[in-house]
Amino acid sequence: MAFTNRRLAEIFTDIAERLQIQGEVVFKTRAYSTVAENILNCPRPIVELWQEGKLDEIPGVGKEIARKLDELLRTGRLEFYERLREQVPDGVAAMLQVPSMGPQRVKTVWEQLNITSIEALEAAAQAGKLRDLPRFGAKTEEKILAGIASLRRRATGRMRIGDALPAALELIAALRGVDGVQQITYAGSLRRGRETIGDLDILAATLKPAPLMQALRSLPVVQEVLGSGDAKTSVRLNNGLQADLRAIEPARWGTALQYFTGSQAHNIRLRELAQQKGLSLNEYALRPLSTESKKGGAGELTFETEEGVYHALGLPFIPPELREDRGEIEAALAGQLPHLITLDDLKGDLQMHTTWSDGATDVMGLARAAMARGYAYILITDHTQSLAVANGLTAERIAQQRREIEQVNAELKGRFRVLHGVEVEVKSDGSLDLPDEVLAQLDIVQASVHTSLSQPREKLTARAIRAIRNPHVDILGHPSGRLINEREGGDFDWEALFREAAQHRVALEINCDPARLDLNETHARRALELGCLLSISTDAHAPEQFNNIVYGVGIARRAWVEPAVVINTWPLSKLLTWASSRTQGAAS
Ligand code: DGT
Ligand code: CA
Ligand code: CA
Ligand code: ZN
């Protein structure tokens, strides 16, 4: 093993951090972090000094640490470090990367709430479980969530839409009431519904920009003002996201909103169309090419709405999610834009978890929340036995759960229907985690791959296909298994998988969890072309996560999805007919 100075410094830093979390006295932990720093700054390889017997020449290295370095370099491992790693798990140490989580706080959440990962920390903060701990508070929870969002952003430099949208809505809510503001909204990639966001583009219609710019600069969520002028201010928010605010003359709102919504590729195509008509288009106006290209010049056409801009170019309104130059201009010119799915088309949600596995709410709690949203049905899909970390269901517990669901349905007296399903594990050989007799008793079965995602393509694909061919499986959940900014999805042969799903009429999920958004837009669009059915579900572990449906619908719209192919736009009777025909079709 090559012990570079960098690697050695990492190990000693890690030792210092894990000791800090254990509550070790400062002079001891500092000894390790000082040595780590000195190793990193050492001009010569430590390995050479060791070979020459000169470890004690490194500043800060006494007898004790020299002995540890020697053991490490001689044997390739350090017993003391291995023990420490067992005592303080990696997931616990990883929480130190979250800004505002020091050793003290990590120790507290670990000891008092048994939190051992960044994901669990995030879930606890979202659920308001941290605020009552010593030296925490509601503000700390917010800071931790912002810190986790900014940490994840480091992976790609882009933030998940699930972190960006709430930040944008908060800014807008804070600025809406400012004197002179007539309209305020977000544009850019966020309005187009992309899965990740580079920066926020906020537009406000006003004739009085000064108080608006002032208001933004003084908001508590603003960490730094990057630049501020008469018509535009750029800031960095406390979650690391940059936001640009532009003041727009109300008479020019249409061109500005169109321009700053983008995408750049779509805008280039629009400008070409304008030029063919002898016009030039920018964020201020549409004007004859012949006249001087100046704001307020002769013959200038201004638009208060985006529709106006599109109509002036001979086009119908193009929904923001389509504006990527992926065929939308051609479709618009031909009068063949898709009738995209909307939130209102959905009649139910088909993936969620209750307290029977790793959810936070019971069946009735989810049913009431879904009814309040205007849904007609939900499908309960708790995890199955082999996912022990999530308290997965055995056949016996599924039977018990059925009684609870029947009771809830009886209480709701036909005003709403709770369907009994499951999110059954697809095991590493493609077999399912529950016997067919048990699956046969459920209304709708969802199958998901959670483990061994790094299998080679052939094995992984065969595994998913085996699940699809099981006549009891109706939906394949979050097909790729990716976590945005955290983990790549599995290397499936998507063409083969989509063809199989289409043939067996198994629906593929667009999972709305903003960490997943899986299928992604490219896969969803291809699945559609190959004739697959889709479902759009939140995977909610608590009722408020039903709100995540907006993200999945956004992805579906970006994939040109129309409502008819999405099974949870169907009325209950059609949904159940489809599910039972799947089972019978394959059995015959
Ligand atoms: P992002 O921020 O990377 O997630 O993506 P966008 O699309 O929000 O990009 P952004 O913030 O750079 O610009 C917002 C919109 O403004 C962009 O979609 C189109 C328009 N825009 C910005 N700069 C240019 C430019 O240099 N040329 C053109 N044609 N459009 C631009
Ligand atoms: Ca942007
Ligand atoms: Ca921008
Ligand atoms: Zn799952």
Structure report:
The structure is a single chain. By secondary structure, this protein is of the alpha/beta class. The protein has four domains: 88 residues, DNA polymerase, domain 1, CATH 1.10.150; 90 residues, 2-Layer Sandwich (Beta Polymerase, domain 2); 80 residues, Beta Polymerase, domain 3 (2-Layer Sandwich); 245 residues, Metal-dependent hydrolases (TIM Barrel), CATH 3.20.20.140. It has 24 helices and 16 strands. A seven-stranded parallel sheet has the order 10-11-12-13-14-15-16. Strand 14, helix 21 and strand 15 form a beta-alpha-beta unit. Helix 8 packs across helix 9. The chain is globular and about 85 Å long. The model has no long low-confidence stretch (mean pLDDT 94). The structure holds 2'-deoxyguanosine-5'-triphosphate, calcium ion (2 copies) and zinc ion. One calcium ion binds next to helix 11.
Element layout with pairings:
Layout: H1 5-22, H2 26-41, H3 46-51, H4 63-75, H5 79-87, H6 90-94, H7 103-113, H8 118-126, H9 138-156, E1 159-160, H10 161-175, E2 181-186, H11 188-192, E3 196-197, E4 200-206, H12 209-217, E5 222-228, E6 232-237, E7 242-248, H13 253-261, H14 264-276, E8 279-281, E9 286-288, H15 306-312, H16 328-333, E10 348-349, H17 363-372, E11 377-380, H18 395-412, E12 417-425, H19 436-440, E13 444-448, H20 457-469, E14 475-476, H21 494-504, E15 507-511, H22 521-529, E16 533-537, H23 549-558, H24 572-587
Parallel strand pairs: 4-7, 10-11, 11-12, 12-13, 13-14, 14-15, 15-16
Antiparallel strand pairs: 1-3, 2-4, 5-6, 6-7, 8-9
Helix pairs in contact: 1-2, 1-7, 8-9, 13-15, 20-21
This protein binds 2'-deoxyguanosine-5'-triphosphate, calcium ion (2 copies) and zinc ion.
